[in-house]
Fold each of these.
Amino acid sequence: MDKKHKHEEDEFAELGMYPEEEVKLCRIDKVNLGTKYVVYIDTGIEDIVIYRDLLRMLRTATEADKVEVLVNSPGGVLDTGVFIANAILDCKAATTAIVQTAASAATLIALACDTVEVTSHSYFMLHNYSAAGMTGKGNELKVMQKFMDTYIESVVRDIYAGFLTSDEITKLLDGTDYWVQGKELVQRLKSANKMPGGCDEQTQ
């Protein structure tokens, strides 16, 4: 191994990002003149501190790079999901989500990608936020509730646009859960312009 590649490996190992031989959160593959990053969102989504390396990669990736996000997650911390989704939306590289299960906050990450690949056994579960951790005096809880309702509506109307209709998003905000798989999932991804080219039959 030459000094350049050894330095690169040491640098990414410090960040929690490893080359293909030692897959952790992110794998790095050289692709022509760019770099292919493979990211794993395959546990519950936790505190944002765990994803610092991922956020750094998304911020520094270039137009010559590619990012694949493998999603198999029940969701988790909303703020983390929104932070990662926004980083994906701002990423200069082409981004693709490859989904087995995307539930709750994980759907934000998947649908933030430029394209989404699924199989006949993939599914999404979308719902309104859970208010765990909200504490305070009665008037403070009312203010927080009002703020969160407005905030969440802005997030889901942005990221779920096309995947859910405007009426469906309204129902989601009122408490309806959406479980989507198979041909319905493919059709919704088409409506949201998230299907990769030439993959119309990927669930068959």
Amino acid sequence: MGFEIVTNAPSVVRLEVHLDGQQKVYFREGQEAQAAVHGQRRTKLTAWFDLNKYSRMRGTCVGLDQLKYPDIPNYFTWKPREAFRIPGSNPKEYDFRRRADPVIGRMFTVSPRERERYFLRTLLLHMKGSSSYEDLRKVNGVPRNTFRDACAALGLLADDAEWRNALRESFASQFNPLTELFAIILVHCEPSDPLAIWQEHASLFVSDIRHRYRRIPAALNLLRCESTAKKYCLHEVSKSLLLMGPTSLSEFRISEPENFHLFLQIMILHLNARKNYRTKYEMPFLFSTQDRNSPSIRLFGQYYQVSRLTT
């Protein structure tokens, strides 16, 4: 053949990584109905589950339970033409290799921002002989609610001590708003437990926000309530995430704050207290799509444009 890659050794087999029921479905234009009838397409991942399940039932393929998903291409071949079969029958998508040539299995890269899919890929690098998504989430026989929880139980997640120290040092120096730093950590630093970081340092966030609004008595008065101050801190984190992403707090297992009118009221007080500020972003972009539809926020956005709401 005319391509040098064909003769390269060892060959590399790409392996899909997808959540349950979220695999890609290919069809020709006009054949949407047939694709819907066939349902979800079978993939190498689902075939690996079935291969392990069939081996357990029949007692075949001794040693298969010691193979991880990326190891499979070195021992089995993939037969895509037989990717559709009757449920319960022999999973013919994989067959024993008949060549001695080594083959490398490589899973597709997954961004850490795709939370559960990223943790699924992490588990597939370590778990052996899994027969389903539910089986993959079991650790020492105990089922876990999410792939992230399973990774945590296996000790596969990095320690968040570095990000905790960064927040404490930033609070001590008063160099940057903690809410902005926390948003940067969420987006770029892949913390293993964002909710725990927020809960452990909520008092620091509250103290920081009160310090920044100390010269605006009306806003400071609204922030004296602990619960209100925490909600406002989350509003600021959410605003920073939207400007960087857009990304939402819910993607990091942190509940979205309520009471946007409070957020709006404090921002108006802050903007009125500032005589000079540089304009860069339009106010509607600081809110989610649903909140932008609020009449008060639309009206506010017509008169103010802000780049940063803090000094």
